[in-house]
Design a protein that fits this description.
It is found in: Cell membrane. This is Amino acid ABC transporter ATP-binding protein. One of its GO terms (molecular function) is ATP binding. It is a peripheral membrane protein. Belongs to the ABC transporter superfamily. With 247 residues, the protein is α/β, with parallel strands linked by helices. It has a single domain, classed as Rossmann fold (3-Layer(aba) Sandwich), CATH 3.40.50.300. The protein contains nine helices and ten strands. The strands form two sheets. Strands 6-7-8-3-9-10 form a six-stranded mixed beta sheet, sandwiched between helices. A four-stranded antiparallel beta sheet has the order 2-1-4-5, covered by helices on one side. Strand 4 and strand 5 form a beta hairpin. The longest helix is centred in the last third of the chain and has 16 residues. The relative contact order is 0.17.
Length: 247
């Protein structure tokens, strides 16, 4: 039986009295790729932040490796930086540091690696994403796609158990999208446990083991890509799929 990597139970989130997440329950298995899709404003990124504990839910539970993260203190959660990786849509690289320094920062500060070991491992991950030749470059000299690949290498350098992606291609020009998606697709093939919020439907079809379709703060349907895209059960799912396919 496949072990659950992350389990969420009745997760809710409120902002100023507005309920953005309305009781989300489900799980992501180890080595599984869960893709979260749905219209803008449906709560996708809020759910991702709640699952990764970047933003604690208002109520409900998030269980990771048997630990209820919602009952843990900030001190208890300090270890999560080593186990849960996040790739943001706007890269969040440090402009005053080289590509190599951006990737080694976490392993040196958090994992207490030596500079030599951190550099060695960073070059391995930069090579994986096709950015080893840019190790000495600064982020401002890179394209958006290159910056995002560096951000992925930075997340991988922490050797996380789960990797979260929040719209990883939404800030990119079309010509840069393909190179980033290729890297994520490779990670999926290597059985990296991932949760991906995306608006790229063809990409979601290719990499997903399971898809959650959200609308108005709820997961209205879940299933494998074949079911979601060709034989959805819910009318809301059908309308969304028709809209994104034929727009």
């Amino acid at each position: 039986m496949t072990k659950a990597a992350i389990t969420v139970k009745n997760v809710k989130k409120e902002f100023k009295g507005n309920e953005v997440l309305k009781g989300i329950t489900g799980e992501v298995a180890e080595s599984q790729v869960l893709t979260i899709i749905g219209p803008s404003g449906s709560g996708k990124s809020t759910l991702l932040r709640a699952m990764s504990q970047l933003d604690a839910p208002s109520s409900g539970t998030v269980i990771f490796e048997g630990e209820d993260l919602t009952k843990s203190t900030k001190k208890d959660l300090s270890h999560l930086g080593e186990k849960i990786g996040m790739v943001f849509q706007n890269f969040n690289l440090f402009p005053n540091q080289t590509v190599l320094q951006n990737v080694t920062l976490g392993p040196i500060r958090v994992k207490k690696l030596s500079l030599e070991q951190a550099n060695q491992e960073a070059m391995f991950y930069l090579k994986q994403v096709g950015m080893a030749d840019k190790a000495a470059a600064y982020p401002n000299s890179l394209s958006g796609g290159q910056k995002q690949r560096v951000a992925i290498a930075r997340a991988l350098a922490m050797q996380p158990k789960v990797l979260f992606f929040d719209e990883p291609t939404s800030a990119l020009d079309p010509e840069n999208v393909k190179e980033v998606l290729k890297v994520i697709q490779k990670l999926a093939a290597e059985k990296m446990t991932m949760v991906v919020v995306t608006h790229e439907m063809n990409f979601a079809k290719k990499i997903s083991d399971k898809i959650w379709l959200m609308d108005n703060g709820k997961v209205i349907e879940e299933g494998d890509p074949q079911t979601i895209f060709t034989n959805p059960k819910e009318s809301l799912t059908k309308r969304f799929i028709e809209q994104v396919v034929f727009d």
